[in-house]
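ok so I'm stuck.
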Amino acid sequence: MSRLRVLIADHAPTCAGVRLALGDQVELSGEVSDASLAIRSAHRDQPDLCLVGRDLTGGWLSAVRGIRRAAPDTSVVVLAQEPNVDDLLEAIRTGAVGYMPGPIDKARLANIVSAVSEKQAVIPRAMVLELLMELRGVWSDGDGLTTRESQVLGMLRRGHTTAAIAERLAIAPVTVRRHISELVHKLGVEDRSGLIRS
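replied:
not stuck anymore, here's the structure
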């Protein structure tokens, strides 16, 4: 079986570390240090896998979206310093097949390469439950919630403020408040605190 062609999109020192850790288990397509270069490189080279750093200059979400449009067959895995459920959910919604927090070493990169080679998702076991809970909320017909209401409710339960929810979902704070009001009504609780406890 041929080696995966991999594009690394992160700060230069991190790219170098990832390249060294990958060794000869893959064919390196390129190393780039910002989102726009990542998108152009993915479009030009059509790699099998793109590793996108969470702190990529120009925005990791923009990079994931752009790479998925420019190279639909490329699997994207987001590399992060710390686990963050909202980042995991955003990565998946945006089209990534994986999210890997924590230090990146040879063994973890080998697991990513192996999973992508076998058309599997790359999600830490400790975060799978959060992903399932989010999906259960989105797919649940019993409570009559819309997808957006489920997203707002999930973020409320994870401790986000109205402003943070608005920023994350790219909607106005007044829209978030409207969703919260509708959630209070639909779920039969007294207030925002009741939603968090429900």
